[in-house]
Amino acid sequence: MILMPTILIVEDDDNFRDLIVEWLTFEKHNVKACSTGEEALQQLNAQNFDLVVLDGHLPDMKGVEVLKRYRSSGGERPVLMLTGSSQKSERQEAIDAGASDFVQKPFKLQMLSDRMKELIENTR
């Protein structure tokens, strides 16, 4: 039996989050989703995920702050950052905090899947 990857989606836009969850569920991933940094940190403390898809701007904190806290608490799983910004300084800050890769919004869902698959395969 093949175990399907468990993914945490952290995105504050309800419609966009639901679309990603629906797509990844269709692709046979186990998906959990939340909309704030605090919820993400609670989920990350409660469960092991194969990959985290993390929005760069959340209502309660920046995605990079969630990433820093996750990494400082020993979190080693890949984190794929979603960003609406093309600013190199934001990307560099996320890389320095431990981001594994980036996807620039807007994007095609298949591209997200391809990046996720690559990151998960590289950690197994």
Overview of the structural elements:
- This protein is α/β, with parallel strands linked by helices and 124 residues long.
- The chain is built from five helices and five strands; from the N terminus they run βαβαβαβαβα.
- The protein has a five-stranded parallel sheet, sandwiched between helices.
- α4 links the parallel β4 (79-83) and β5.
- The radius of gyration is 13 Å and the shape is globular.
- The two termini are 16 Å apart.
- The model has no long low-confidence stretch (mean pLDDT 93).
Could you provide a short overview of the structure?
With 124 residues, the chain is α/β, with parallel strands linked by helices.
List keywords for this structure.
124 residues; alpha/beta; 5-stranded parallel β-sheet; 5 strands
Shape: globular
Please state the oligomeric state of the protein chains shown: single chain
Low-confidence stretches: none
Q: Give the averaged pLDDT, no decimals.
A: 93
The strand count comes to 5
Major sheet strand order: 2-1-3-4-5
Q: How do the helices and strands follow one another from N- to C-terminus?
A: EHEHEHEHEH
Number of helices: 5
Terminal CA distance: 16 Å
Q: Which strand-content bin applies to the residues?
A: 15-25%
Radius of gyration (CA) equals: 13 Å
Q: Main beta sheet: strand number and arrangement?
A: 5 strands, parallel
Residues in helix, %: 40-55%
Helix and strand composition category: alpha/beta
